[in-house]
Design a protein that fits this description.
The structure holds 2 protein chains of 2 kinds. Chain A is built from 16 helices and 21 strands. By secondary structure, chain A is an alpha+beta fold. A two-stranded antiparallel ribbon of chain B has the order 1-2. Classes of the chains: A alpha+beta, B mainly alpha.
Chain lengths: 517, 330
């Protein structure tokens, strides 16, 4: 790989002289870090981050999304939404075949959405509750009929949300235990070749891909390197070309980004738009008091945390909806760093120094330091806080059993508040046993109605004002302490072109990526 | 002495039968330990998906058999291992035996290399340091040994990568072999060996230091004994006395330690494997633990425990060969 880097600099002048339309060169291999090793590659069954990244090259969905979240063709070449917002009609690409050579048709889409994913995919299941029927009037047309308008439905056709799986392999089988899960078959630009557990996953170019000239790359290797420092070294020595967001600790990012021929981008996270916050246990202890929760917000110097703990990446959050998502409003109470105000609020409520526990997210050093910064800020206003650590399983257990006072988390927003935001705040989502719902126990029946109404309004304008209203109200209640909109910079060699072009970044990046020689 | 070979045979039989019971007890104990840890594989898997409802968690628990009472799960597990069936990893979608078998060669290559290198170097350095006790070369060797003994493995590994891989570019810093080149034959062997150097040395240095200190101290102690004076009085040369009289007696503590290290051949390289991205069993164990992949962790624990027991037996046998008095006494 070393010679590639040299070549890249040698040809730098040539590249700048060449017009941007210069042929996208075919061939080459891309080495991308995947961390942690995925538990499986069958995207319909497993949807954790690493699986979405690797299997995002193997499987496809009906739509892709640009960085402004506008839908683009994928398996669907065109689509139409009826004026009443109830009928979604998709025309499919012609000549698509599965990696095993069988033809792809509308039946596969109906099977995937209506049978397979309805059984296996918790997040899609929530959206499918709005669907009345999914039909295939002809082999190249799929129609989704809704029971009531559901604005965010157009965002449900993303690859991690509705991957299309082969009907001829899965129909009538026990999906989870189908032996074919070990050798995933999709329609995507790359085919699964080999998985050496603990070392790497090898994908090869799909020669029969239905778009001429794509993909450009011959092969992609996803490399499993368990230690963050070793991943940085692997990039430095040229063994890997791409460090997707979150692969190295934040403080290594500036050093790597300064290397010759290395590029960095914060794009590619628009669809998931991760927002980090601390759950404040609304049920008991000091955190049950809204004044205490507001005091926590004023006590924290979130600018400092963003600058120091996150090395300047990301953005301080103002409320429940990330600013990159639709329907964001900044017309809300702004909690600046104001220790005096925090002390006043604590005095008003009569806080007696009852100790509270902070549960950091066990995802590496950055999160640990973040918790320490919070503890420091809280102790400055007289809140007696201590850090209560756990590993991933322990964190899941404590949060899903509500055994915490303050707990760090972050959640994907999936392009729409009705998909990724309201699930943390409405009372019908207060359920023990899962860390992905209203864990804080916030219960506001008035707002519940507004969340529900906003989800089913037809026009974006109506929804916009409804969500602005919700944001204004909920920010004063501080059900959780909103921390930061996270961005995880992707670090890559500059000769890798067109890697991050969509709202899901590296997850479908290799489809269009090419290497400048 | 007429029962010489028979004794060893009898010892093996009796130790093996005890070993089976010990292993069973270990398996049951591990089972309870791992189930006492907070969280379960269903919650972890659901958590990773970034979204979950009750239906999903129930489905997972049902699939993994976690909805059954603990004693039923234990009964099934024990019934399985009695038939040498370590169960199925639902997380990885493969039988645990296959997962372990996949990873075992890489780990054994690493740990055995480190074991042999450290044992040989440790004894050589220890004996030569003892022969030159008090001289500068002895001081240098003991200082180095102390240094490597006290340095955290993790730090040493990172520094080795930094120097030999990043700065000098002599050796690959991680992995088991060059990915994607499909080397065969001697090229492949050479490729794997070049990947092996740094992790094996890192892992081996600590034990080299331990063996060296042990061998040196033991050599010095034995050389003070009366029979050594007798040997000298007989007019034997120093080299012969060292090799045939002192070393033979001084080696026992080293054998004991070597037996302990050998017991860790399977599970003792977690850190080294993590830093060097070595696809071995230590990482499998660590990652399965984080994911609460019960059957896989229990499988790795059981294989590790079997190795410890096996090498304890081997150590006992080696004792008898090195020092026939042990067999005679018992």
């Amino acid at each position: 790989m070393k010679y590639l880097k040299l070549k890249a600099t040698t040809f730098l002048i040539a590249a700048t002289l060449a017009s941007p339309l210069a042929a996208q060169e075919a061939g080459g291999r891309l080495d991308i870090v995947v961390q942690p090793e995925p538990p499986g590659l069958m995207l319909g069954l497993v949807q954790n981050g690493p699986t979405q990244m690797v299997a995002g090259d193997i499987y496809e969905s009906l739509l892709r999304y640009d960085s402004d979240l506008n839908p683009m063709p994928s398996l669907a070449k065109s689509w139409e939404i009826s004026d009443d917002g109830l009928t979604y009609t998709f025309k499919l690409q012609e000549g698509v075949i599965w990696h095993d050579g069988k033809p792809f048709s509308a039946d596969d889409v109906v099977f995937s959405a209506d049978v397979f994913l309805r059984e296996t995919h918790a997040r899609l299941r929530a959206s499918l509750a709005y669907v009345e029927s999914i039909t295939a009037p002809d082999p190249l047309t799929v129609v989704f009929k809704l029971k009531e308008p559901f604005g965010p439905f157009i965002n449900a056709f993303e690859n991690g949300t509705m991957p299309i799986v082969p009907k001829h392999i899965y129909e009538g089988t026990d999906f989870a235990n189908n032996p074919a899960n070990a050798t995933p078959i999709g329609t995507g630009p790359f085919k699964f070749d080999e998985w050496v557990k603990g070392s790497h996953i090898h994908l090869v170019k799909n020669e029969d891909y239905y778009i001429d000239g794509l993909p450009h790359l011959d092969e992609v290797f996803y490399r499993v390197i368990p230690d963050a420092a070793a991943r940085a070294v692997a990039f430095e020595t040229g063994d890997v070309d791409v460090l997707p967001g979150g692969s190295v600790e934040n403080w290594d990012v500036p050093r790597l980004a300064e290397m010759d021929g290395v590029c960095i981008t914060e794009k590619g996270w628009e669809f998931v738009a991760p927002l980090a916050w601390m759950w404040l246990n609304n049920r008991e202890g000091p955190t049950a008091n809204v004044k205490f929760r507001q005091a926590v917000m004023y006590a924290m110097d979130r600018e400092f945390m963003q600058q120091v703990v996150w090395n300047g990446f990301g953005k301080v959050a103002t409320g429940p909806i990330a600013s990159s998502t639709n329907f964001y409003s900044d017309d809300v109470t702004i909690y600046d760093h104001n220790p005096e105000k925090a002390k006043e609020l604590l005095a008003e409520m009569g806080y007696d120094g009852e100790p509270i526990r902070i549960l950091p997210l066990p995802y590496g050093e950055t999160w640990q330091r973040w918790a320490e910064a919070v503890r420091q800020n809280l102790s400055e206003v007289g809140i007696n806080a201590e850090i209560d650590s756990a590993d991933v399983a322990g964190w899941n257990e404590k949060t899903s059993q509500w055994d915490y006072d303050l707990a760090f988390t972050y959640l994907y927003q999936y392009g729409d508040p009705a998909l990724g935001v309201s699930r943390n705040y409405t009372a019908d989502r207060i359920k023990k046993g899962s860390p992905w719902n209203n864990v804080e126990g916030y219960n506001n029946p008035e707002l519940d109605k507004k969340w529900a109404a906003a989800a089913t309004m037809v026009t974006p304008e109506e929804r916009n004002s409804a969500y602005a209203d919700i944001q204004k109200e909920i920010v004063d209640d501080v059900p959780v302490a909103w921390m930061q909109e996270l961005t995880f910079p992707t670090i890559y060699r500059c000769n890798v072109k067109d890697l991050v072009t969509t709202a899901i970044g590296v997850n479908d990046g290799p489809r269009n990526a090419w290497i400048e020689k | 002495m007429i029962r010489g070979p028979m004794t060893i045979f009898a010892v093996i039989v009796s130790r093996l039968s005890k070993a089976v019971l010990t292993l069973l007890a270990i398996a049951i104990l591990n089972f309870f330990l791992i189930h006492a840890a907070p969280g379960d594989p269903a919650v972890v898997l659901a958590g990773e998906a970034g979204a979950a409802d009750e239906q999903m968690i129930e489905q997972l628990r049902d699939r993994f058999g976690l909805d059954q009472p603990l004693y039923v799960q234990l009964g099934k597990y024990v019934a399985g291992i009695v038939q040498l069936d370590l169960g199925y990893s639902f997380r990885q979608g493969a039988p645990v035996v296959d997962l372990i078998a996949d990873r075992l060669p890489a780990t054994l290559l690493l740990t055995l290399t480190a074991f042999v290198v450290s044992l040989v170097m440790g004894i050589i350095f220890g004996v030569s340091a003892a022969a030159r006790v008090g001289k500068p070369s002895d001081s240098i060797l003991t200082t180095l040994a102390l240094l490597f003994y006290a340095t955290p493995l993790y730090w040493l590994a990172l520094m080795a990568v930094l120097v030999f891989s990043v700065w000098l570019g002599w050796l690959p810093g991680f992995g088991y072999e060059t990915v994607g080149e499909n080397y065969t034959g001697f090229t492949r062997i050479f490729d794997i060996l070049s990947h092996l150097v740094l992790p094996a040395l890192t892992l081996g240095l600590f034990f080299t230091a331990v063996y060296m200190r042990m061998a040196r101290a033991s050599m010095l102690e034995v050389s003070q004994l009366d029979f050594v004076k007798t040997a000298k009085a007989k007019g034997l040369s120093d080299a012969v006395i060292r090799r045939r009289h002192i070393l033979r007696n001084a080696i026992l503590p080293v054998v004991t330690l070597a037996g302990l290290q050998a017991g860790q051949l399977v599970g003792g390289a977690v850190l080294t494997e993590t830093v060097f991205a070595w696809p071995g069993i230590g990482r499998l164990m660590f990652e399965s633990l984080a994911a609460r992949d019960y059957n896989t962790i229990l499988g790795v624990f059981l294989v590790s425990a079997a190795m410890v027991i096996l090498f304890n037996i081997v150590t006992d046998i080696v004792y008898r060969i090195v020092d026939p008095r042990i067999g005679a006494r018992s």
